[in-house]
């Protein structure tokens, strides 16, 4: 089942996509008189998750591309994304002005400050919890999963790498594109074969299988639930592979006018344009 949130005629609703053979079968089984909804646009499939957990390095290839990176000796879940950063399909990723409040300008102390906020993309497979999970063992962990989605873990590198402000860097408004839907786990029983990819202006930048993760979803749920109770609707962003703009030579950060598409096989594509923000204090 593919769960979507949508806007129709000025109202917001939640529904099931009917495209495809299985969707048509489900549509045929709907009660007599049920009519399809005209969708004006898709929204993020989940706009109010209580918690979104992130892992900075959950693919060896991502660690390998950072000069001098030392791999940790255990699974790492090292930041949290907040719901106010979530946007949906087609919504803009907004790059804040570099000289307003938090200043990132050439000649400053922050790494990559000459690139302003040095905004980067990261495709990530999202895992959505379906039931309350506490002290769950990895062998049982998938029993607590509702389904899968796609995240673009956008971040401002010149904030992230300066004074260790990872959470702040990843939570600017619009820095959490999510979508285009949530696919229930029964439709994707072999999560390890899901391929995630990112493209910037149609150029392939990232591509990897979920099975390449250092701390895959069952391990992640075991670890996190040993510390924090997971609730229905909580999400795990399960890391990104090599190919971020930060570690290219020279770095290739997002700029206004770019278009970013992240995808996961079996889930779909999520596309967002990049725009320049305006001064917030003038």
Key terms:
282 residues; mainly beta; Fumarylacetoacetate hydrolase, domain 2; 10-stranded mixed sheet; 5-stranded mixed sheet; 19 strands
Kindly summarize this structure in a few lines.
The protein is mainly beta and 282 residues long. It has helices at residues 21-28, 60-64, 157-160, 166-169, 217-225; strands at 2-8, 11-16, 41-43, 52-54, 79-81, 86-87, 93-95, 99-100, 102-103, 119-120, 123-129, 145-152, 155-156, 176-184, 195-200, 203-209, 235-237, 259-264, 268-276. It has 2 domains: 1-43, no CATH class; 46-276, Fumarylacetoacetate hydrolase, domain 2 (Alpha-Beta Complex), CATH 3.90.850.
Q: What features would you describe in this structure?
A:
This protein folds into two domains: 1-43, no CATH class; 46-276, Fumarylacetoacetate hydrolase, domain 2. The protein has helices spanning 21-28, 60-64, 157-160, 166-169, 217-225, and strands at 2-8, 11-16, 41-43, 52-54, 79-81, 86-87, 93-95, 99-100, 102-103, 119-120, 123-129, 145-152, 155-156, 176-184, 195-200, 203-209, 235-237, 259-264, 268-276. It is mainly β and 282 residues long. Helices cover 11% and strands 32% of the residues. Strands 1, 2, 3, 4, 5, 6, 11, 12, 14 and 17 form a ten-stranded mixed beta sheet that branches. The chain has a five-stranded mixed beta sheet with strand order 7-19-18-15-16, with no helix packed on it.
């Amino acid at each position: 089942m593919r769960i979507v949130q949508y806007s129709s005629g000025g109202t917001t609703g939640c529904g099931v996509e009917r495209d495809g053979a299985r969707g048509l079968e489900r549509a045929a089984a709907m009660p007599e008189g049920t009519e399809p909804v005209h969708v004006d646009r898709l929204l993020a499939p989940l706009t109010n998750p209580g918690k979104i957990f992130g892992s900075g390095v959950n693919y060896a290839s991502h660690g390998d591309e950072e000069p001098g990176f030392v791999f940790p000796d255990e699974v790492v879940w090292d930041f949290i994304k907040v719901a106010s950063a979530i946007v949906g399909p087609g919504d803009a990723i907004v790059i804040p002005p570099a000289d307003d409040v938090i200043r990132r300008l050439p000649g400053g102390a922050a790494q990559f400050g000459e690139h302003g906020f040095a905004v980067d993309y990261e495709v990530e497979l999202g895992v959505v919890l379906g039931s309350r999970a506490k002290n769950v063992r990895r062998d049982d962990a998938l029993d607590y999963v509702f389904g899968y989605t796609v995240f673009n873990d956008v971040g401002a590198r010149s904030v992230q790498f300066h004074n260790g402000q990872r959470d702040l860097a990843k939570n600017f408004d619009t820095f959490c594109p999510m979508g285009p839907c949530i696919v229930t786990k029964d439709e994707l029983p072999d999560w390890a074969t899901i391929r995630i990819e990112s493209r910037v202006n149609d150029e392939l930048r990232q591509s990897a299988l979920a099975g390449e993760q250092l701390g895959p979803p069952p391990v992640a749920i075991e670890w996190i639930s040993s510390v924090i109770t997971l609730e229905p609707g909580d999400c795990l962003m399960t890391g990104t592979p090599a190919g971020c703009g930060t570690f290219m030579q020279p770095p290739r950060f997002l700029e206004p006018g770019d278009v970013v598409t992240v995808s996961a096989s079996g889930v779909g594509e999520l596309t967002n344009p990049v725009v320049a923000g305006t001064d917030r204090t003038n």
